[in-house]
Specification:
With about 140 residues, the chain is of the alpha+beta class. The chain has six helices and five strands, in the order H-E-E-H-H-H-H-E-E-E-H. The N and C termini lie close together (about 10 Å).
Amino acid sequence: MKDIDLALFTGVDIPVPECEIIIHQPTIKEISMIGEKQFLTGAQMLCIDKDSLKQDGKDLSNTSNFQVFMTIIGAEEMKETKKAVIEALSLILPNSKITFTPRSLLLNYNGTNTIIDEGNFEYFQEILRQVFLSKEQRR
C-alpha cells in the first residue's frame, strides 16, 4: 500500500502511475454538488470488494473485483448506481470524459485516453480506498 497520508492530509491531488491518472480529492463543497448519498453510493461501488459480498453459494474465488464491478455497473436494474459511479468519478477525475465499455473504463482528458481495466483496477482501488475511507476501514 502506498504511503499517501501527507497527500491526504494536505488535500493535494494523488498520482496513480499504474493507471496513468491523477486523483483529485473532492472537497465537501464539491461532494455537496452531487449529494452525499450519491457520492457515497459511487464511492462504495468504486471500492467494491468481492470478499465482503454475500455470496449466496456462488464461488467468487476466480472473479476479480473489476469483474464484479463491471457486472453490477452493466446490469439494467443498476442504472442509478451507475449514475452515482459516474458522478463520483467526475469529482475525482475532473474534466475527464468517462465511458464504460464491456471490458474497461475509458477516460479521456484533454485528448489523452486512459484505460482502467482488469490489469490496473486494483491499483486504482488501493488509492481510492485510502482517499475515501478512514485508516481503520482500509484493507
